[in-house]
Amino acid sequence: MKTYQIATIPGDGIGKEVVPAGRQVLEALAAGSSRFNFAFEDFDWGGDYYRRHGVMMPADGLDALRDKDAILFGSAGDPDIPDHITLWGLRLKICQGFDQYANVRPTRILPGIDGPLKRCAPQDLNWVIVRENSEGEYSGVGGRVHQGHPIEAATDVSMMTRVGVERILRFAFKLAQSRPRKQLTVITKSNAQRHAMVMWDEVAVQVASEFPDVKWDKELVDAATARMVNRPATLDTIVATNLHADILSDLAAALAGSLGIAPTGNIDPERRFPSMFEPIHGSAFDIMGKGLANPIGTFWSVVMLLEHLGETDAAQQLMRAIESATATPSLHTRDLGGTATTADVTQAVCRILAAGQ
Ligand code: ATP
Ligand code: MG
């Protein structure tokens, strides 16, 4: 029997509710399996840790995670701590420290969920957005001078390396190739951003030559938002920069019905380090502690975690349980227009798993 070492980092806000729910689901799967088990280690990093220690995570935090098979993360964000501290002090530290350069965000309309696109059949919206996760607009390069003076100036430099662009595009082409439609849309803004974005376009042509069976096209990011709404069925796999894909994937999550159901994997494709899985929503302090958080985004992230571990059967079993929960209106949380609680949905999914369906 294989025992997977899983780190759980609930973080802040509703992360503290949805990560324990994700762990319960993993435990339910392990209870029904003779193949695998999970050993969990929980890390109390985040806003409360910052208030006690002045840092979001300890200096040797990455070492504590290094030998894990995967990380299940909640969210980092606290109304009393500036966003750049919560984000850079925890989530980005892990993403960058472990070179999780591919951020993968599947989006589709699950059974029973009513998206805002009335003209769109559920099968018309089935995307995977690949977000460059290590550089670009969020590389941290820049500076601020003359603070508080009339001549104050600040820059955020979007740094793109050829190596970084090439590896994310290769990852995206490979992913597109593994999906039935074998189709990739490369998104840039190369009409207005004349340097790095033009390099993206050039590298795309070069990498595409390695994947002759993948049909691909280019789209500007502004046009892409309209296309997602007006012609969703023309898209399949999508790759974009750190900032562009951040925005596009929130749009995608909203089009699929709720921010609360959307999952993410922060992947190190070379498997030198553990990858990290998390719902795309944030800490949502407005609904914290009330049992209103939809745990489906975390459960779907657990599906991605299982796929990453190679436990495909368990991943499929959990995805079927999620779909059976979303297809049941009495199991919809408030963000989906229902009255179910986090615990209701979690218990229902665990029951479905225990029944071995
Ligand atoms: P952060 O600053 O950490 O990003 P946030 O306050 O911006 O957090 P988000 O989590 O990004 O909040 O989500 C925006 C809103 O969507 C929340 O205020 C909340 O009402 C709703 N929401 C987000 N996630 C969920 C969820 N899992 N279940 C129900 N509602 C959610
Ligand atoms: Mg937010």
Structure in words:
Helix content is 39%, strand content 22%. By secondary structure, the chain is an alpha/beta fold. Strands 2-1-3-12-11-4-5-10-8-9 form a ten-stranded mixed sheet, sandwiched between helices. A two-stranded antiparallel ribbon has the order 6-7. The chain is globular. Adenosine-5'-triphosphate binds at residues 14, 75, 77, 259-260, 281-287, 292-294, 297, 333, 335.
Secondary structure elements and their pairing?
Layout: E1 2-11, H1 15-31, E2 36-42, H2 47-53, H3 61-65, E3 70-75, H4 83-97, E4 102-108, E5 126-132, E6 136-145, E7 153-159, H5 162-178, E8 183-188, H6 196-208, E9 215-220, H7 221-230, E10 237-240, H8 242-255, E11 263-267, E12 275-279, H9 296-309, H10 312-326, H11 342-354
Parallel strand pairs: 1-2, 1-3, 3-12, 5-10, 8-9, 8-10
Antiparallel strand pairs: 4-5, 4-11, 6-7, 11-12
Helix pairs in contact: 1-11, 5-6, 7-8, 9-10, 10-11
The structure holds adenosine-5'-triphosphate and magnesium ion.
Residues 14, 75, 77, 259-260, 281-287, 292-294, 297, 333, 335 line the site of adenosine-5'-triphosphate.
